[in-house]
Amino acid sequence: MELQKFQYDNKTVKWFAYATMFWGIVGMLAGLLAALQLCIPALNMDLPYTTFGRVRPIHTNAVIFAFVGNGIFMGVYYSLQRLLKARMFSDFLSKVHFFGWQFIIVLAAISLALGKTTGKEYAELEWPIDILITIVWVVFGWNMFGTIIRRRERHLYVAIWFYIATFVTIAMLHIVNSIEIPVSFWKSYSWYAGVQDALVQWWYGHNAVAFFLTTPYLGLMYYFLPKAANRPVYSYRLSIIHFWSLIFIYIWAGPHHLLYTSVPDWAQSLGVVFSIMLIAPSWGGMINGLLTLRGAWDKVREDVVLKFLVVAVTAYGMATFEGPMLSLKNVSAIAHYTDWIVAHVHVGALGWNGFMTFGILYWLIPRLFRVELFSKKLANMHFWIGTLGIVLYAVPMYWSGIMQSLMWKEFTPEGQLKWQFMDTVTKMIPFYATRAIGGSLYLIGAVMMVYNLIKTIKKGSFLANENAEAPALENTVISHGKEHWHRWIERKPVQMMIVSLVVVAIGGIIEFVPTFLVKSNIPTIASVKPYTPLELHGRDIYVREGCYTCHSQMIRPFRSETARYGEYSKAGEFVYDHPFQWGSKRTGPDLARVGGKYPDSWHYNHMLDPTSMSPGSIMPPYPWLFDDQIDVSLTVAKIRAMKRLGVPYPDGYENKAAKDMEQQAKIIAGNLEKDGIRILADREVIALIGYLQRMGTDIKNESKRDTLNK
Amino acid sequence: MIKETQRIMLCYHCGENCENETIHIAEKHFCCQGCKTVYEILNKVELCDYYMMESQPGLSQKTQVRPDKFVFLDDDTLQLKLIHYKDKVQSHVSFYLPQMHCSSCIWLLEHLGKLDKHIIRSQVNFLKKEVSIVFNHQYTSLRKVTELLTAIGYEPHFSLNNLADKPKKNYDKTRIYKIGVTGFCFGNIMLLSFPEYFSLGNMEEKDLQQLFSYLILFLSLPVFFYSASEFFVSAWKSIKQKILNIDAPIAIAILITFGRSLYEILSQTGAGYLDSMSGIVFFMLIGRFFQNKTYNTMAFDRDYTSYFPLGVTLLSENGMEEQIPVSNLKTGQRIKVHSSEIIPADCILFLGKGMIDYSFVSGEAIPVEKHIGEIIYAGGKQTGGALELEVVKDVSQSYLTQLWNNDAFTKAKDTGKSYIHSISKYFTLVLFSIAIASALYWYVHDASRIWNSVTSVLIVACPCALLLSATFTNGNMLRILQKYGFYARNAAVIEQISEADTIVFDKTGTITQQEESAITFTGVQLHYETIQLIRSLVGQSNHPLSKAILQSLPFCKLIPVKNYEELVGLGIRGRVLDHEILMGSSDFINEKIVSTDKGSNVYVKIDNKLLGYYSIQTTYRPGLSELLKELQEKYDISLLSGDNNSEQLKLKKWFRSDLLFNQSPQDKLNYIKKLQAYGKKVIMMGDGLNDAGALKQSDVGIAVTDNINNFSPACDVIMNGNSFSYFNPLLRYCKQNKLIINMSFVISIAYNLIGLYFAVQGQLKPVIAAILMPVSSISIVLFTTGMSSLCSLSLKKAGLKVINKHPKDDTNHTAN
Amino acid sequence: MSVIFILILASLMIAIGFLIAFIWSVKTNQYEDDYTPSVRILFENDVKQDKDDKTKQ
User: Which positions ≥6 away from B238 have C-beta within 8 Å?
Assistant: First the structure.
């Protein structure tokens, strides 16, 4: 029997590498723009597509799913083949995966710019794209498991287990969180409402971080770090324990993103305890990574790749320590809604994911093109400028975050809030500026890398199909005759595995959703009524413009907040919110009880030119709301959808809706006219005003009965 | 790290010095033809990356293997034993390769397919120094594969032991399953229990609460029925033997906990204690795993079979040579033993001159000369030329091997129940009395709370903490000791050591360095001419002593010797340059000398003038005298030597008590028995086959070896020779084990009391149990491991070096 | 909070899936040797690449 000859597919790896570099730059540019908009509001350019509310989701989606996503696939496609001594299962699937993913990214960018969003952070993409994602993801899994089954190396290296975990969990998270009821091709409502939606969203949100930004990168670390250092991982046994202990309980985190919200206490505490427990496995990985380099620090001094990897792992350690700290209730009380959180995630994103990706690229490209790196000097410069960038980014954000939070909470001896919200905003500007500088340094570094790598590629010669040979896995296995399971799996076609997984997941959910959700959406506060059609439209505009990126809708039960915004939020108030819009950051003030606070005309002028009403505001103007008409064509569909979700509109209301809407619009237009403002009642701004004026009013004159937590 | 800085040429293959620079390919130099050949083989198939990964990764090939050595592997019965899977085309076999030592080895051995395309795949298990090979037996054979391995410098280690069909040592799967399953269930049960605790038992969402408790119940089933089973089993066993071991109270606790929780959940009267239960089981399993972790790289129960060769050359009547497995050897058969091979059975020398090195068997330093007609006992190694022998006893019946028929071997050694078991007896009694007491109390005051309080008492008082303190202390100590080259068979051994009061040493190989004898001349000052005379004379003789002396003398031209004669057992004489020279025993040169130590002394008499004598002494391990001095203080120390008493005087200084020579293996065994009869707890330190009996009989048998991969007889501890002089600190460290365990007992008792405080009142909230359980367990784990690591600092202070087994950390590849 | 039913069941489903995977991997001796694999991944692919396969980028 001969050694089997086969070829590694380097082409797909190359493609993903290119995509990583390209989208990396794009995503960072978007980030930089968003950052600048906070200190130079003019950069919002008075265009719908370029306002912060839409740029920010583009940034987050681009860096997470485009930059990091392609980075993951690049690393997986390279290492998987070599670890398994087998070519990827199918070149066709590889192609579909690559182009499918890029297509999704383009669609995402466009749709987000156009304001097509579900309004759920990190899951903003609308349902058609969600379905595409599911399909492409399954293709990825299919390709991966196919390769695993055709492998020529019996042992599955720990990295592969991390890849598997990534695939399986992300599939489930994505499906569960994206269950939504379509209204039109580009509009849908989340199936869950209010508190429920919040729970699902942050269960997803946290695990997206865990399984998209962490586990796959741990896998990559376990492959590329030893390779780059050319020494085995410090303790392979530890890495195995690391994986299994992580995987058995990781999935539980999430609710700690909702501390002091209307989520039940025990759920919050569960989240806290859980996040604390996560320190152990996270640090297990970090320590294992760093100790791999014990006695090889001289190498690190010379090898730029190792430099990047070391900083990445360190950043990972810092972030995974800070995270649990932030999830402590009293820390969260300060940090939540501030730039501290922004700093925290960027230490992870820029340090861990960014630097790890750079390191891998610097290692990989010269190998793919069988040539030395064009300029080590440039790479070193990249490393230092990047590190400096991270520091300049994080430090001011930590500082400003804590400062702003303290200002929010500060009272005068007379018991009055010391600062107007606007004061705290203007104080931020210099910090935002510094942050932007840090960001641009990081971006410059990335550009230098791209240049460096392009030069490298130019002088190298690419090897599309790399010859390799390995003995086949002998089908009969001597290992103590306990092979039934294994054999069984191998006989099953891989399709079955993935399909069954998806089917079970979907099936399970479909089964549970109607029973529980609809039932539990029955209002528990008598005075809380469904939104009127106009308000509903207004709310959809609120979502479309991404107001939630700067404004929260959740007043926490602190004196400082109730004094500033009014009565703290109750779970029962959100039962008709599909999706919930609690938000996670207060660049602007909370809006949960903005209803009735100002006259309609105030809102009108404020939307037209925020500074006119609140001088020093960094909020962009929304001129188009005054020209565009409310899309009444969807009114019926929207009401229907809401009814299907259990919102108690009277029977056949969808037909009366249009009329009700007209009336309410006329009233608002009337109010404006009193203040000498003339505008047609069918403009979007009217609907938005309607929604804003409704917010939090339902229970304003309600006696506070035991309405907590339900 | 290629050593170009040094002047001397280093072998490109093995890194040893090249005496002559004649052997080389291009500018690659080799120390010997062997190394060169290996290089050529690898070079032909472009496997020279072998030399890229690590520099000079090979091992010296100076000693060549004789070509027909592995012919016996063609024997079918033998193959059946060695090949553990076979079908139409494939054969699966795994070899033990002691030479494996670096990542280059792994690489090369996994590329065997390039050397022989009929080798389908080869996979290395580095820590076991094992390579498992699948080959196509239609084109190649077991013998061919073996010869290939030998050719590239990895001669597989075969021994009679390979034929014993005992199951291959495999790592403990069931325990890993259990830990995995329990860990999974524990983790999730805990998370599902939190809501209950945070809302302190009154959650608004009743439906959720129910779902949780049922999920918990569901998750706890595997823990109870699968993972915890071993505790029930061992408890039951002990009860049947009318003793209460530690598992008994644990089993009770688990049982009660599960029962009560089951009741509470089904009757919806409470949340139950299932999280505590699964937690306890989890921690205890981890502890046991930690403690029973065995080194798959080491063999503790080797018998002579793993020392004896697998094949032997049989001489048929018509003088034909034939390779047969030793197992087929019968009395009366004629065999041929080549140089540096082991005598497989007791034989009569038939042809050739025997120079049998018994250093490993009996401990004699110098090879013994055997002449035709003499009996040669099995186990010795022929150092001279090839011999023809006639077998007089089968392998298993020979002088040496019959030792294994002694009952010390037949009956399994009592590994000593850990003394926590004895403690647990009292623990259980106390526990029950408390339970009864509280029962009585409540019977008087509030009968409704009896059941509640009694169960709670039994639940919280679970002695898992006691178990943990033992398992984790031992486990960690084993780990640390192993780091310092002191490989204990299991945790019980540590406790045994801490109880020992007597140490018995074997001499050669144990307190002396193996194969190193120093030759000193006592007498008048010898000048060059005289030395030349002596050298010329001994140059004539083949006697081991003569050879030894010859080597010790500086090089000088040999002068022809006239009328040379050699008198067996006496000495040699001859005329050199009209000088009459006699060399030999005192009787031979008929001088009445009152010599301090008789035996291996060679007197020199030239022209009837006695110049003095050469004496052959063995060199002792460094630091021996200090070590013994220290040990004298705490232990009775005695020495058993298979050797003659030539060294008696020197040894007298060190050993005050018994000092016995010419001890047969059986004698040694009996000596230990005698000591034990006096109620002594004996540590036996030996190295050779002849110590096997004693090692087995003693309470703790410690085999000293200079390379843990070498053969070492059955024992409880394998100790690296380098650590020998630190034996005392190691003993002291072992003694600390009991102390640590007792201290942690105190802690665990404290926790139990807290628990009992709530329990006896009949109000043990699940949350309290759920807090107590992990807190106590974790603090015990931290304390014990912490303390045992802390104590190990004394070892570092004593100057012990950590022994590292991983290739990347190997600095010199020529080692071992 | 009935949505928690879904989250828990989904999470548990996955977790159990991985438990099975764990049992499989132990059964098939994935972890019999927990050292050599970490060295094995360091070996570079040493097969000679034939020239014509080059495609200038």
Answer: B244, B245, B247, B248, B421
